[in-house]
Amino acid sequence: MPARAASAAWRRGPAASGPHRAPRLPEIRCSCPGSLLTGANRRNERSPGEDDGILTAEELSTLDLAGLDWAVLSACRTGVGEVADGEGVFGLRRALRIAGARSVITSLWPVGDVTTQQWMVALYRARLVDRRSTAESVRAASLAVLRDRRARGLGTSPITWGAFLAAGDWR
């Protein structure tokens, strides 16, 4: 199962049972938007100067991502940040745009692993195989998940397929 990134105040509690659920993980709390990378669960054991395994929005914004067409964050709520009076929303999406990414694709609420995988496969197929624009690729991915849910007799509420969005250059 792919590693999942984290957003503000991310917390992983007891895992639910089922074939598509992640194993139980220790609780990790982040007070700022960021991504948990390998070693984040052992950050208290690190030596001074050693990477703590947490890539923050502040660190992301200092990278040179000029020329990067897409930054895709598939974990839950990666498009949500903290609101600061007079400043707008601080978060991973904004940090990646500041760093130079032309488009950032994120989610606004939790989405199941199977649906996320299905959406991401459809997104990349639309972009890389069908050569569609960013906006067309996002739309195609959402429609693919929606069509699949209808075909299987599952609910079609936007909460099940509409969490992902693209910000930035629509081409």
Give a brief description:
The chain is an alpha+beta fold.
Written account of the structure:
The chain has 171 residues and is of the alpha+beta class. It is 28% helix and 15% strand. The chain has helices at 57-61, 92-99, 113-129, 134-151; strands at residues 34-36, 54-56, 70-72, 82-84, 88-90, 103-107, 164-168. The strands form three sheets. The protein has a three-stranded mixed beta sheet, sandwiched between helices. The protein has a two-stranded antiparallel sheet with strand order 1-2. A hairpin with a 3-residue loop joins strand 4 (82-84) and strand 5 (88-90). Helix 3 (113-129) packs across helix 4 (134-151). The longest helix is centred in the last third of the chain and has 18 residues, at 134-151. The model is unreliable at 1-32 (pLDDT under 50).
Count every helix, treating DSSP H or I runs of 4 or more residues as helices.
4
**What gross morphology would you assign?**
globular
Termini gap: 31 Å
- What structural class is derived from the secondary structure elements? alpha+beta
Alpha-carbon Rg, integer: 17 Å
With strands numbered from the N-terminus, the spatial order across the biggest sheet is 3-6-7
